[in-house]
Structures are given as structure tokens and as C-alpha cells.
């Protein structure tokens, strides 16, 4: 089925085709293009609501990942038995939150969304950043994905984990 | 964990083909699920059939008695030669109260404006929005008839238990047609769009739909009001999603985006309410005549 893209907000004008192309490029780099993936773009209210429900943090954020496989070892791809299980899960992008960050730092919105989606896909694939070791492992993976992405597209994107704190 | 959007899509698509049936009864709209997109569309509390069931507010006080002889021989209450029964009188009183209630919740008689330089033209229940953009003409038409989503049994129960402040609200979500005409072209590109919320699960509320979606795309002769069935029609149910996204971006570039869809809902809700009140007034006039 591929990438299911949903735009549930009206605050940020999004280019759907661009976002899909970027997400597809990331899936190819990671070798997970056979897996379905949901990308849901939401505003601050909605991501805050979801963040509160699932993480007990009543603040808006940039990305929330909901893995289909919850106990993956980082770097190991899932081994689905049925077509239904060719699914990585869903990534909620807080596009309003990301847009504000981009405005503050004069960054390109769709570039930032690509970086954040790469971060989200890493979470779907079992990467975490709760300990120093996990953080390093995830940063390495994100750096690889984005260096490949930059090589393929000529852009200059940097990993999100670089700017992460342990809080994230 | 959220129920995966990916897994929900298959069933949503199947339901969509059955969701276009016309609505014959005024009904409670769905209760907005937890994760349903927030809408700024002007809504109004449900005050139609439920209002009568509830009967706490203004009412005529009329209680029909079954099996009385009058039920079989209606009385003529005036000498004008027309039939004026007790039932007609009660009906007229009821309509008078209903109109009063509806006017009370009508925020303003003026229709809300669409941002983006759209011009509105009304023809009965049909609205036409037009704007020009660098040699292109974009027209959006919709009809407020049958534009209020159907209700669901469990939602009626929920609705009845809720307090007045939490009353569900009526929002008109009509299908709408976008026509893009380029200068000198014999054909318009026509998009048949809809608000897919009625396809959402009304239980868990975790299946996510776009605010509006394209159902079909075709070329139609420019300025021709008759739909040409022989034109190839692209159905989006089985479409390459990359192509679908380009079509959505194409509409967004012409001012038909989520903000537009939200404002259209607001406009349609106001028009529908206006037409409903007008209908009640006509009905009252007819019953009294």
C-alpha cells in the first residue's frame, strides 16, 4: 500500500507531493519500501492532545511515533508473516510546531519535515534515545540516512538527534 | 497504541462507496471523535427533532389524543371554505415555536465570507463560488440539500444523555465540485470532492481522514451544465497516491485547500440553516392558508 498521507490541519500549507517523495526516498534508503507507513500531519492542539494521552506530556511537540512492532531490536527489520503485517506504524508530524521552529531558525519547512520523519522512522524501527548508548546508536543511524538522502537529492540536512536532549 | 491509519484505510475506502446515499431524515450529526480535526466552522446546537422529543423548551402544549372521534372527522374552524383542522392549528403553533427557536440560534442573517476573493452566487439551495486567477477561472458549486451527515443509533443515546452545553451540533458537509477552466480551453478539469468524515469510525475515533478528499476527476465541456458521462472519469479509490497528492497540490495552488474546505463548511452550514428557516416559514404559511 505504501505511504498513507493525511493532512488534518489547516495552519500550515503543505506540499503533499513533496512530502510523499521525501518519505519514499527515506523508505528506500532504509530498505523498508515494502512496508506501509502512515504519516499524519496535525496542528499544535492535536499533537498536544496526543502527547498528553500517550506520554502524559501536555505540550505540543514535533513528532510522535506509534510503531506497529513494539519490541524491535534497533537495526533489525521486522519479519512479517502476512501481508497485513507489512506495516511499520504511524508517525504524527506536528507541522505547526515544526513550522514555528523553522521560522525561528530560518529553515526550510519540508527539509525539516524530512529530518523529523527520518527520526520518526528510526523510532518505528526500534531505535530509542533514553540512554547515552541508545542516543549514539540512533544518531549514527539518522546520520547515515540523511547523508544518503543528501547524496541522492543534493540537499544538506542534519539529523534531529544531534539537537536532541534526553528529554525528547 | 493508536490503531494504525494504514490498516484503517482499506475499510474506509469500501465504506465510501456506500456513503453517498441521500439522507431522508433530519438527524443528529456524528459526535466528533477524540482525534477528529478541530473545525472552526460555525456550528449550531441540535434543536430540531430532538428538541421536540425533549420538550422542555417552548412548545405548543398540544397533546394529540388517540382514538377520539375527532381524529376521524376533522373540524373546520373557519368559514373561508378551506380545510382548517385542529391539527393544522397545532401544527401552525408548533412551527411558530420552532421558527422562534431556530432564529434564536441563528447567529447572524448575513452569510459568512470566504477568504481568498471568492464571489458567491446563490440559486435556491445551490451555491456557486467563483474566482479568477491569472487567466484561469475556478468555480466551486455545492448544494446544501442532503448535506448533513446521517446519525448513528449509539450517538442518539449519547446525545440524549448530554447536558444542554454539550449538545451535538449540526454541520453541513456537502459534496462540492471544483471546475478549473483555462483561457482558450474547450474543456474544464472537474474535481468531485467530499468531506470524508462520515467514513470515520464513530466508536474509537482513531481512523484519520483528510478534511476533504477528491472522489473523481474528469474533463467536461466548458460551460456545459450537463455532466458528460462519456468523459473518462478518474476514480481516486484505486489511484496512485503520488498522482492523488499532485491533484491535491494543484487544487491548493488554486485556493482549494483545508482552510477553504473549512470555510465552505461554515458557509454551507449557514446557508442550510437559512434555507431551513425559510422552509419552516413557507410551511407555516401553507398550513395557515
UniProtKB/TrEMBL annotation, chain A:
GO molecular-function terms, A-Z: endonuclease activity; metal ion binding; metalloendopeptidase activity
GO biological process: rRNA processing
Classification of source organism: Eukaryota, Metazoa, Chordata, Craniata, Vertebrata
Cofactor(s) the record lists: Zn(2+)
Protein name according to UniProt: Putative ribonuclease
Keyword Cytoplasm listed: no
Keyword entries, A-Z: Endonuclease, Hydrolase, Metal-binding, Nuclease, Zinc
InterPro entries recorded: MetalPrtase_cat_dom_sf_prd, YbeY, YbeY_CS
Family as reported in the entry's similarity comment: Belongs to the endoribonuclease YbeY family.
Automatic annotation (TrEMBL), chain B:
Annotated Gene Ontology cellular component terms: extracellular region; mitochondrial matrix; nucleolus; plasma membrane
Compartment(s) where it occurs, according to its Swiss-Prot or TrEMBL record: Cell membrane; Cytoplasm; Mitochondrion matrix; Nucleus, Nucleolus
Family the entry assigns: Belongs to the MAM33 family.
Keywords assigned: Acetylation, Adaptive immunity, Apoptosis, Cell membrane, Complement pathway, Cytoplasm, DNA damage, Immunity, Innate immunity, Membrane, Mitochondrion, mRNA processing, mRNA splicing, Nucleus, Phosphoprotein, Secreted, Transcription, Transcription regulation, Transit peptide
Membrane topology: Peripheral membrane protein
Protein name: Complement component 1 Q subcomponent-binding protein, mitochondrial
Chief localisation class: membrane
Source species, domain of life: Eukaryota
GO BP: any one term: complement activation, classical pathway
Source organism of this protein record: Collichthys lucidus
Amino acid at each position: 500500500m505504501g505511504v498513507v498521507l493525511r493532512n488534518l490541519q489547516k495552519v500550515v500549507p503543505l506540499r503533499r507531493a513533496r512530502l510523499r517523495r521525501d518519505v519514499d526516498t527515506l523508505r528506500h534508503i532504509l530498505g523498508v519500501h515494502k512496508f506501509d507507513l502512515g504519516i499524519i500531519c496535525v496542528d499544535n492542539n492535536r499533537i498536544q492532545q496526543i502527547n498528553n494521552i500517550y506520554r502524559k506530556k501536555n505540550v505540543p511537540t514535533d513528532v510522535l511515533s506509534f510503531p506497529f512492532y513494539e519490541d524491535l531490536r534497533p537495526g533489525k527489520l521486522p519479519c512479517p508473516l502476512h501481508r497485513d503485517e507489512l506495516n511499520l506504524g504511524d508517525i504524527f508530524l506536528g507541522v505547526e510546531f515544526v513550522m514555528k521552529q523553522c521560522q525561528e531558525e530560518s529553515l526550510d519547512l519540508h527539509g525539516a519535515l524530512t529530518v523529523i520523519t527520518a527520526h520518526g522512522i528510526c523510532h518505528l524501527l526500534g531505535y530509542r534515545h533514553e540512554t547515552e548508548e541508545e542516543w549514539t546508536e540512533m544518531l549514527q543511524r539518522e546520520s547515515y540516512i540523511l547523508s544518503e538522502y543528501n547524496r541522492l537529492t543534493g540537499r544538506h540536512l542534519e539529523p534531529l538527534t544531534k539537537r536532541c536532549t534526553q528529554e525528547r | 497504541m493508536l490503531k494504525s491509519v494504514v490498516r484503517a484505510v482499506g475499510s474506509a475506502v469500501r465504506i465510501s462507496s456506500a456513503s453517498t446515499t441521500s439522507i431522508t431524515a433530519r438527524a443528529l450529526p456524528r459526535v466528533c471523535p477524540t482525534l477528529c480535526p478541530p473545525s472552526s466552522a460555525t456550528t449550531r446546537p441540535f434543536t430540531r427533532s430532538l428538541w421536540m422529543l425533549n420538550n422542555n423548551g417552548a412548545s405548543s402544549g398540544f397533546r394529540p389524543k388517540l382514538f377520539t372521534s375527532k381524529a376521524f372527522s376533522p373540524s373546520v374552524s373557519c368559514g373561508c371554505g378551506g380545510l382548517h383542522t385542529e391539527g393544522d392549528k397545532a401544527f401552525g403553533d408548533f412551527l411558530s415555536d420552532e421558527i422562534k427557536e431556530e432564529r434564536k440560534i441563528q447567529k447572524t442573517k448575513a452569510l459568512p465570507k470566504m477568504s481568498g476573493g471568492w464571489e458567491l452566487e446563490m440559486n435556491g439551495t445551490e451555491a456557486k463560488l467563483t474566482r479568477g486567477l491569472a487567466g484561469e477561472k475556478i468555480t466551486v458549486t455545492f448544494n446544501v440539500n442532503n448535506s448533513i451527515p446521517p446519525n448513528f443509533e449509539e450517538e442518539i443515546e449519547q446525545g440524549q444523555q448530554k447536558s444542554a452545553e454539550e449538545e451535538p451540533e449540526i454541520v453541513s458537509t456537502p459534496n462540492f465540485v471544483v471546475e478549473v477552466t483555462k483561457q482558450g480551453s474547450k474543456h474544464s478539469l472537474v474535481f468531485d470532492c467530499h468531506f470524508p468524515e462520515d467514513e470515520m469510525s464513530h466508536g474509537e475515533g482513531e481512523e484519520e481522514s483528510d478534511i476533504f478528499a477528491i472522489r473523481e476527476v474528469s474533463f467536461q465541456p466548458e460551460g456545459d451544465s450537463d455532466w458528460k458521462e462519456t468523459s473518462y472519469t478518474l476514480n481516486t479509490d484505486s489511484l496512485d497516491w503520488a498522482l492523488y497528492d499532485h491533484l491535491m497540490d494543484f487544487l491548493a495552488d488554486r485556493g482549494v485547500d483545508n482552510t477553504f474546505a473549512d470555510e465552505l463548511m461554515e458557509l454551507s452550514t449557514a446557508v442550510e440553516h437559512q434555507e431551513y428557516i425559510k422552509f419552516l416559514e413557507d410551511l407555516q404559511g401553507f398550513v395557515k392558508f
